[in-house]
Amino acid sequence: MEQGFDPEVKKYFRKIIVSFSWGFLWLFINVIAGIYFRLGSISEAPVFVSIIFYSLSFTALVLLIRYYYRIWGKQK
Question: Nearest 5 degrees, angle CA 34-CA 69-CA 15?
């Protein structure tokens, strides 16, 4: 009897772990920057700082989704 996982299952689980990790990192960075450093609140930070924060967050989200499409779009 073989020991260990099937290589395809390992690749699939690795995709899941990497996707979750990058998504959590993006979320964590945005929450820390938005709440702890008060960059997400328009009333507490200058308007241009909030605009930069939200534009960088959106750009990072677009790049993250693009990365997900690239990772999950591969057949093998």
Answer: 85
